[in-house]
C-alpha cells in the first residue's frame, strides 16, 4: 500500500493559519488535496492535523480525516518523521500495512498531479534500491560559487572549494523543494531518515517548486497561480 500523507499543523508563526488561509479564494491545503485525489483514492489519502478547524475545512471537500493528531506531535519541535511513524502505526492498528509513504506538504500549491504521478513512477520503477525519493530543483545559491562561511578569523571563505571561475563550470547542486517525498517504510523501520544513503532525486522546475514559508513566498505563489497554467 502507498499512503499519501498530508501534514497540516494548526499553528504557524510566519503566516497565521497558513495551511487553511485562502490563496486566490481557496484554502491553501485544498491545492494539495485536489492534486492527490487526481492520483489516488480517498482511502489512500490521510491528512494529519491537530486542528479541528483544519479537519472541518478538509472534510468540507468530502475527504474524511481519519484521526486528530495528538498534541505531542503538534509542537514546533515535532518532526515529519514522528508524524509519518504515527500515521503508519495508526493504520497498522486498523489492519492496514503501509509499504510506502508519499508525503505532500500543503505549502507547495504549484506541485500538481503530473508531478506526483511522474515521481511515483520513477520511484516504483527505479533500477536500484531506494530508501527515499525527494523532489528537488537546481539551486540558485550554488555553494561552489555563491555561498560563503565565516572562518575563525572573521573572513569569508567559500562553502565548497572549487577552482572554477565561471558558474557554468561548477557541479550542479540540487535543493530540496519540499513538494514530494516518498519513503520506503521498511527502511523507515530500520533507521532514521537522516541516516538514509539510498536517496534519489525527482527534479522539478523553479516555478513548480515554490514553497511557502514567508509572506513574500505567499504573494509570489498567488501571482504564479493566477498567471500560469498549473500543468
UniProtKB/TrEMBL annotation:
Enzyme class, first EC level, given as a word: transferase
**Mind listing the UniProt keywords for this protein, alphabetically?**
Nucleotidyltransferase, Transferase
Question: Which GO molecular function annotations are given, in alphabetical order?
Answer: N-acylneuraminate cytidylyltransferase activity
Q: Highest taxon of the source?
A: Bacteria
Q: Which Pfam families match?
A: CTP_transf_3 (PF02348)
Enzyme Commission number(s) of this protein: 2.7.7.43
Write down what this protein is called: N-acetylneuraminate cytidylyltransferase
Q: According to the entry, what is the taxonomic lineage of the organism?
A: Bacteria, Pseudomonadati, Bacteroidota, Flavobacteriia, Flavobacteriales
